[in-house]
Amino acid sequence: KVKKSRLRAVRWWTLAHAESMNNMVVPQTQIQNPTSLPLTRKQRNLVSKNPGSIRAVYQGAKQAILECKYQFKNRRWNCPTYESGRGVSVFGKILQKGCRETAFIYAITSAAISHAVARACAAGTIYTCSCDYSAKPPGHETATPGSSNWKWGGCSDNAKFGHKFGRRFVDVVEKGQDIRYM
């Protein structure tokens, strides 16, 4: 049986439902204030140390749910989500079972958070990270749109920071040797 504290620790997925039924986003101050959000203490600290990151977490959670629904749209279990309240998971009781769907949910949410944070770094919306200037698209090292000494000067997604942030944010619930979290 899964401890209630573990299910409480994944309440951050409810950020994906931060939009009301009439498509209005929850006020900016409520999303930016980590103390009013369904986060663990460690997640609140991480978000507080990285101003602007909560928006990326919100976008990542939303994208993970959309991707889950897309991947399972023609299956019996089609990634249903629920408007959750009082610590109930967005995905319902499936998280209490050790099955492939649970593994997919954890994997897709982790990847979506990492991706959203990496993109937010490149966009300049997270103040503790910036572009990854070392990553250059293939063929752009010395590409010539007119001159042979033209070099890539773009702003790539900061995948390294995104991965690090994503692991620290999502993996906070991974305690013990529970097979669902390995």
From TrEMBL:
SMART domains: WNT1. It comes from the Eukaryota. One of its GO terms (biological process) is canonical Wnt signaling pathway. It is found in: Secreted, Extracellular space, Extracellular matrix. Keywords: Developmental protein, Disulfide bond, Extracellular matrix, Lipoprotein, Secreted, Wnt signaling pathway. One of its GO terms (molecular function) is cytokine activity. GO terms for cellular component: extracellular space. Ligand for members of the frizzled family of seven transmembrane receptors. Belongs to the Wnt family. This is Protein Wnt. It comes from Sepia officinalis.
